[in-house]
Amino acid sequence: MVNAGDGRHEHPTQALLDMLSLRRAFGDVGGLTVAICGDVAHSRVARSNVALLSMMGVRVRLIGPPTLVPGDADRWGCEVFHDMREGLKGCDVVMMLRLQLERMDGALAPSTREYYRFWGLDAEKLAWAAPGARVMHPGPMNRGVEIDSGVADDPAVSLIQDQVEMGVAVRMAVLASLSARQEAER
């Protein structure tokens, strides 16, 4: 069975393509520190990436407002921060997540304007991470809400275009692998 994303639970093909993008950018990923920021509570991308990144020896941090980080996230084997400056300190990669407004019951976040002020990634906040830190986003992006266009579109820091390109390659590889397996079983 192929799972390309199932609601709030998992999104393994996204984690695979994110890992491929990281490997292309850094080579060996073991020892990197990756911050996954934003609406972790409603993100299937976060759960799949935490599992795969941890398996590959990456130090994972979850950063977001208390209302958008699951209460049990500290048991996921990663560090949890509710302060963007502290959480980004020393990170090699900042992976932003969009607000999943369609999955929220009630007001779990302030206005999008206020959310951007505290939790949106811009050049100033990116400077809190390690020098040369790279930026990721699984898409779709809400520019001016969780990420600034200047950061998202800067080829010196952004891996987002690579993620888009690797998405096609990874999903084609998964389908080709399944097809080859079916042929071998005949």
Q: Using DSSP, what is the number of strands?
A: 5
Silhouette: globular
Number of helices: 7
Strand order of the largest sheet: 3-2-1-4-5
End-to-end separation in angstroms reads: 17 Å
- Biggest β-sheet: count, sense, barrel? 5 strands, parallel
Q: Mean pLDDT, as a whole number?
A: 90
Helix content: 25-40%
Oligomeric form of this entry?
A: single chain
Unreliable segments (pLDDT under 50, ≥5 consecutive)? none
CA gyration radius, whole angstroms = 16 Å
Q: Approximately how much beta-strand content do the residues carry?
A: 5-15%
SSE series: HEHEEHEHHEHH
| Structural class computed from helices and strand pairing | alpha/beta
Description:
Helices cover 40% and strands 11% of the residues. The model has no long low-confidence stretch (mean pLDDT 90). It has seven helices and five strands; from the N terminus they run αβαββαβααβαα. It has helices spanning 12-26, 44-55, 84-88, 112-119, 123-126, 149-152, 160-185, and strands at 33-37, 59-63, 79-81, 93-96, 134-136. The protein is globular and about 55 Å long. α1 (12-26) crosses α2 and α1 (12-26) packs across α7. Strands 3-2-1-4-5 form a five-stranded parallel beta sheet.
